[in-house]
């Protein structure tokens, strides 16, 4: 972006883009204290999206954007010039907190945050079969 205008100089165009069969899939976003800066921007990008939940611990809190200025003596000055904002306009001047707080631990060799996210995704996608008591995943075509 230069002077408020987004450049298309480096835009890649795909001749035949892939189209999702399910246009609104469930998405579980994992976060924690090691998730900072651009990772937090990714977390914020999913906030407010339909059928999406954040799992884990609060992020690191590096949600500000910086601008750099070269001073006359050649030294550099970096100033915070922006705050991370989600799609609904909510600002995150510090950490981003998950929808489902999960303490970091490992149970039965499985990360607790990943396990909680997996359970939620399975609850969204698993449907009971009409012909048995087993649970089956919906077909790829649905």
Q: What does this molecule look like?
A:
- The chain is of the alpha/beta class and 142 residues long.
- It has a single domain (27-136), classed as 2-enoyl-CoA Hydratase, Chain A, domain 1 (Alpha-Beta Complex).
- It contains 2 helices and 10 strands.
- A hairpin with a 5-residue loop joins β3 and β4 (76-85).
- The chain is extended and about 65 Å long.
- The two termini are 39 Å apart.
Could you report the average pLDDT, rounded to the nearest whole number? 86
Can you give the helix content as a percent range? 10-25%
Major sheet strand order? 1-2-6
Structural class: alpha/beta
CATH architecture descriptor name: Alpha-Beta Complex
- Indicate the overall shape: extended
- For the secondary structure, the number of strands is 10
Structure described in brief:
The chain is an alpha/beta fold.
Name a few traits of the molecule.
142 residues; alpha/beta; 2-enoyl-CoA Hydratase, Chain A, domain 1; extended; 3-stranded parallel β-sheet
Tell me the layout of helices and strands:
Elements: E1 27-31, H1 38-46, E2 52-56, E3 64-70, E4 76-85, E5 91-92, E6 100-101, E7 106-107, E8 110-111, H2 112-125, E9 127-128, E10 135-136
Parallel strand pairs: 1-2, 2-6
Antiparallel strand pairs: 3-4, 4-5, 7-8, 9-10
């Amino acid at each position: 972006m230069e002077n408020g205008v987004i450049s298309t100089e480096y835009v890649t165009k795909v001749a035949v883009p892939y189209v999702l069969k399910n246009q609104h899939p469930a998405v579980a976003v994992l976060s924690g204290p090691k998730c900072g800066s651009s990772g937090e921007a990714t977390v914020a990008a999913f906030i407010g999206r339909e059928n999406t939940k954040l799992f884990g611990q609060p992020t690191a809190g590096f949600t500000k954007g910086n601008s750099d200025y070269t001073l006359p003596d050649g030294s550099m000055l970096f100033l915070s010039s922006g705050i991370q904002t989600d799609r609904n306009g909510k600002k995150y001047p510090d950490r981003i907190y998950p929808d489902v707080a999960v303490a970091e631990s490992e149970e039965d060799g499985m990360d607790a945050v990943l396990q909680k996210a997996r359970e939620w995704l399975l609850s969204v996608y698993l449907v009971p079969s009409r012909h048995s008591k087993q649970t089956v995943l919906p077909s790829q075509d649905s």
